[in-house]
Amino acid sequence: MKKIIQEKGEMIIGTWTLNCIPFDSSKFLGKLFVTSNSLYFDAQFDSSLSGLLKTLVTSAVVESGHSLLVAPSILEDWKVKGYMAVDKKTIKKIEEKSSFFKKTVVITLEDDSKIIFDYGLLSVRKLAEAIKQ
């Protein structure tokens, strides 16, 4: 993933290993790379209950019967490349949500689709700041 980002001439601001929730009830564990221009998420596997039951181990998104929250164009790109890329210019809103056991960043794109980055118990302040840069 770092090589792909470097080939595009982008500098990495930060990386986080976390869960990405682009579907209503699917959760993908992987590594998020934040650059000055984009977000890149390299999924390692589906860590949702339905994914674990299917024993899916892949770096690409697979069709799901759940309601889709992420833009179809991003999903198609993810299937082809094996990673998700989101241009920061398409981000309309960034929200930090925090409870005692769960810290998340929810990004809303121009088309009102949402992507949730779940960092568990750890603070998401630096992640949100990196996305805003």
Model description:
The chain has helices at 2-7, 49-54, 72-81, 125-132, and strands at residues 12-21, 28-35, 38-46, 84-87, 91-98, 103-109, 114-118. The protein has 133 residues and is an alpha+beta fold. The chain has a single domain, classed as PH-domain like. A 7-stranded antiparallel sheet has the order 4-3-2-1-7-6-5. The radius of gyration is 14 Å and the shape is globular. The relative contact order is 0.20. The model is unreliable at 49-68 (pLDDT under 50).
Named CATH topology:
PH-domain like
CATH uppermost class: Mainly Beta
Sheet with the most strands, sense and barrel status: 7 strands, antiparallel
Helix-strand makeup class? alpha+beta
Instruction: Please name the CATH architecture.
Output: Roll
What is the β-strand count?
Answer: 7
Q: What shape does the CA trace take?
A: globular
Strand content: 35-45%
Order of helices and strands: HEEEHHEEEEH
Report how far apart the termini are. 20 Å
**Main sheet: strand order:** 4-3-2-1-7-6-5
Mean pLDDT: 77
How many DSSP H or I helices?
4
Number of domains as seen in the coordinates = 1
* Rg value: 14 Å
What's the CATH H-level homologous superfamily? Pleckstrin-homology domain (PH domain)/Phosphotyrosine-binding domain (PTB)
- As a percent range, the share of helical residues equals 10-25%
The stretches of 5 or more residues where confidence is low (pLDDT under 50) are 49-68
